[in-house]
Amino acid sequence: MAIEITRREMSAGELRDAAARSRDANATRRMLALALVLEGHSRGDAAQMCGMDRQTLRDWVHRFNAEGIAGLSNRPAPGPEPRLSADQEAEVAEWMESGPDLERDGVVRWRCRDLQERIEREFQVSFHERTIGKLLARLGFRRLSVRPRHPESDVAEQQAFKGALPI
Known about the structure:
single chain, mainly alpha
């Protein structure tokens, strides 16, 4: 059965020009196959010359007829559904901003493992420790480490020492 391209705003030469400008190799191959079909080649010959199956070319012709040249590019995969809702993620961000509570959380600073336990306790959602780090990065948090300070250091004495040095 013959295949028909109903969208006629581009000729075979214009499709080849668009293929030459395209940075997407797969879309380029599909444009060239469509150009061959527009020139009168059979679907099997056009598909074989462009390294695809006859049925695959038919599917791309239908996408081209429906969406134009933009339909020849691969669509990104949707990916998995997020396990935490936007409200829950906002709550985790709030936890990060306010810091842990020693009585409730048992820690004085957040580690990914501590957040992992609290998320599982509060939302009944289990994450790997590495995924907690990715979640924090997505929420805009970075790993910061403060400069260590000796507990018995005297700030006034340090300032006096700095002032006594010759410049």
